[in-house]
Design goal:
CATH class of the largest domain: Alpha Beta
CATH architecture of the largest domain: 3-Layer(aba) Sandwich
Strand content: 5-15%
Order of helices and strands: HEHHHEHEHHEHEHEHEEHHHEEHEEEH
Oligomer: single chain
Strand order of the largest sheet: 2-8-7-6-5-3-4
Number of domains: 2
Largest sheet: 7 strands, mixed
Structural class: alpha/beta
Distance between the termini: 33 Å
Length: 427
């Protein structure tokens, strides 16, 4: 889409006045004087999340064990209740969604269920740019199934070190491939893969395909009715803003409800027989059959609360602003920062990028340190990437403009030179 932008602070302020989501900032806790650009890694806390967490605590304080039966079993079925609020973000049925675990444990659950290798069909396709935990989990399952990783795992190579070609993925979809696991949005470069195309091609070859939505859910709308993936996993602490380590989620396509869960736990048992405490697993008839242990109530409650904001605002409106404000940031980078050695490493087309910008510079690490001392919170990824996420729900155009001014000052005045190249644990 073509965008028309102008330089200058007054234009940024005008964009804020025209922004239909600008008032949503008031729902979040913002630190005065700080520009938060790291929502792609950990979203900000909201008043709705806080209220929901305190409410669960107070119900527990008052009811103790009776918490499981109050409000018509709301908390005993907390996953179902939250799934009802989340379903519009991926256009799936509520009974295809569960809220549990972490991305890593949910990948283990999905692969334990869907990876059924035989000699003629045992390979798994991943990409070399995916986040490490996806690969760790995949290799773990391969080994647990008795195969050697080097014999089974196909890693799609990147042509440019930033992105993955859909053509290259499709070219490896041979009859010996049993399963594919890919990210919807690449964490480093913000590339948005063509999920519908790749899923359709995988199914032509009888291949199970699943998606990691960590860097897209809450920022990019997905239509699972149309895409038709076999499974998906996601975390809730990035664009969903549910808090550090918040309970993750999982999607199981209803066409697989007849499958046996690879990992079984007592909350995957049917409600009506769960407390009969039989040692014979009576699997629930839908995605809830993949649940494991008792719900982590305090980890789920903030997600329950913050999803009220998403349902009020609408994921399509969130995506529209996200595309516009990231396009604005790219415009400013091109026009104000390129002469200082900055460049953009993410795809520029709307349909090919997620919600963050991949800003590259030879001194990216030290610039990231300098940004924090200038009250800007980005994150850094090796070897030369500053990830910047002007999250639609709480970042303003004026803040985005000031961010670029600060990036200019740090290099122009050589502020970065006073920082060490020694890596710290989290940045």
């Amino acid at each position: 889409m073509g965008y028309e932008f102008k330089d200058g602070l007054e234009f940024a302020k005008q964009l804020d006045k025209l922004d239909k989501l600008h008032h949503v900032r008031e729902y979040f806790y913002l630190n005065e004087g700080e520009i938060y650009m790291d929502g792609n890694s950990l979203g900000l806390s909201s008043k709705e999340a806080e209220k929901a967490l305190l409410n669960v605590f107070n119900v527990w304080r008052k009811e103790a064990i009776k918490i499981w039966g109050v409000e018509n079993g709301r908390y005993f079925n907390f996953s179902k209740n939250i799934s009802e609020k989340l379903k519009n973000l991926i256009n799936a049925d509520v009974d295809e969604i569960i809220i549990m675990g972490s991305i890593t444990t949910n990948i283990h659950q999905a692969l334990a269920t869907f990876y059924k290798p035989i000699k003629e069909k045992c390979k798994i396709i991943v990409d070399e740019l995916n986040f490490p935990t996806d690969i760790y989990a995949t290799k773990s399952i391969i080994e647990l199934k008795g195969y050697k990783v080097e014999d089974v795992l196909i890693e799609i190579k990147s042509r440019d070190g930033r992105t993955i070609s859909e053509e290259d993925i499709i070219s490896k979809m041979d009859d010996d491939v049993a399963l594919i696991l890919l990210p919807s949005v690449l964490y480093r470069s913000a590339q948005l893969l063509d999920m519908e195309l790749l899923t359709r091609e995988a199914h032509k070859h009888g291949i199970i395909i699943g998606w990691d939505l960590a860097h897209s859910i809450g920022s990019v709308p997905h239509d699972f009715k149309k895409i038709d993936p076999d499974f998906a996993v996601w975390c809730s602490y990035k664009y969903l803003n549910a808090g550090p380590g918040a309970t993750a989620g999982m999607y199981i396509n209803r066409k697989h409800f007849n499958k046996s869960a690879g990992l079984k736990g007592w909350f995957g048992n049917k409600d009506e027989s769960q407390f009969l405490l039989s040692h014979d697993f009576d699997q629930d008839k839908d995605a809830n059959g993949w649940l494991l242990g008792t719900h982590n109530m305090f980890s789920m409650a903030p997600l329950d609360g913050v999803l009220n904001i998403f349902n009020e605002v609408g994921i399509e409106n969130i995506r529209a602003k996200s595309l516009h404000i990231t396009a604005y940031l790219m415009y400013l980078i091109d026009n104000k920062l390129s002469k200082y050695g900055y460049s953009i490493g993410n795809p520029r087309e709307d349909h090919r990028r997620g919600g963050h910008i991949c800003l590259e510079h030879d001194e990216a690490y030290r610039i990231s340190l300098a940004l924090r001392d200038n009250k800007v919170i980005p994150d850094y990824r090796e070897p030369n990437v500053i990830r910047l996420a002007p999250v639609a729900l709480y970042v303003s155009y004026e803040e985005t403009y000031h961010l670029v001014e600060i990036l200019e000052k740090i290099v122009r005045d050589k502020e970065f030179e006073k920082y060490s190249l020694k890596r710290v644990t989290v940045l």
